From TrEMBL:
GO biological process assignments: cellular response to phosphate starvation
InterPro entries, per the entry: BphY/WalK/GraS-like, HATPase_C_sf, HATPase_dom, His_kinase_dom, HisK_dim/P_dom, HisK_dim/P_sf, PhoR_N, Sig_transdc_His_kin-like_C
Entry keyword annotation includes DNA-binding: no
Enzyme Commission number(s) from the entry: 2.7.13.3
Reactions the enzyme catalyzes: ATP + protein L-histidine = ADP + protein N-phospho-L-histidine
Annotated source species: Acinetobacter qingfengensis
Protein name listed in UniProt: histidine kinase
GO MF assignments: ATP binding; phosphoprotein phosphatase activity; phosphorelay sensor kinase activity
Coiled-coil parts of chain: none
Amino acid sequence: MSDSSLLPDDLNDDSDSQHERYSALKTYISEDIRKLALILIIAGFIGLGINYFILCICLGLIVFFALQLRSLYLVNQWISQHSNEPPPDLSGVWGALLFNVYRAQRRERTMQAEMVGLIDRAQSSLMALEEAVVLVDEQHYLEWWNPAAERLLGLKFGDRKRPVQTIMRNPEFIKYFNHVNDFPDGLVIESSLAAGRYTQIKITRFGYDSRLLVAYDVTRIRKLEQMRKDFVDNVSHELRTPLTVLSGYLETLYENDEMPQRWRRAFDQMQQQTRRMNALVNDLLLLSRLESESLQSKNQIIDMAELMNQLFDDAQGYNTEYGHTLNLNLESHNDLIGSDMELASAFGNLITNAIKYTPPHGTVTISWQDRGEEAIFSVQDTGIGINSLHLPRLTERFYRVDSGRSRETGGTGLGLAIVKHVLAQHDAYLEVESKEQLGSIFRAVFPKHRLHPPENPSDHLMDGE
């Protein structure tokens, strides 16, 4: 290298000429060969002059190898002690080696600087967040957190490298931390720092077993939700009495033989709307009760053969004006552990929906069957079906696929919301398959720990129609 001062500016315009200089190994070797040839020629002439040709040639070779050893020594010294400084000015293969090593180091340092800058910016962004962010390592020790975590979770500087379970001792949190996959929506817990404040926590696994914990204050949302529940509950209770009175008077007047015939149609419509309002109020009160009792245990052993037959009988009574073919398949030996009233209400909603939204003389099949370690209550119909665009929102309150059709059938828009709440409280979930004009299948899927095998399976197996 003729100018070592160019080396620190490896990435500037001179780097291209330097790269060209050392672009081929043949070029590097030829430079050393020329040097060797020059030394041997000089030694040969001296040897001829003093009549010691062979001796001078050997001395020339020794000089060449001594120079190579000196270059090797300088390379070793630079790599071991001064690799951050420009390399010594060497020619030939050793110079090319030094240049390439130095260039690789420069590139690596540039990449490291960029990575450090990126990490600094990411960390600054996390520090500015109002949400708490906590990193937990593979041993479940606290590794890093932002200032919001100190405000929301009460973490302190001395908590670093301590097990997260010894800092956040809430039993629900420990259960969530150890079984993250069982809580797809995260966890809401009451803050240990201030009474009446609530924190939403979401944990994500990454790497081998590291975890990212994100938490944020949901106190305002909880208060608004509680206000909504109280409002719905109070309004529903307040509506119940006047609706009962109104329904009673309407029924009395409608049954009066002296009522003019032209008024009967109006009274009939008023009775229909009153019944619809009563159904809506009852559903709202049921939803409110389900929400308030979400933490209560559901540990009754429900005889599914008896419940399925009861549901089938009720469905036959409801089916009178529709003329459907109703089928009952009881293929599972298992009973259920839960609340019989709540499950009967949820299953009944699925059955009445199938009957209502199936054109006359269709087929509705009610089943209780096993699927591996799970058990499924299903209702299949040959109805009008549901467009796949609507399926994700079916269980929302008052969501209607077709508002006109819901008014004609007298639906309240709360049936599937009730089903969702009941199933969630029984650790179950709802599966829906539907195609327009081909019908639908609604499945309530119950996990193994909610099943109770009967003592005499033969008594629980039957098929009905």
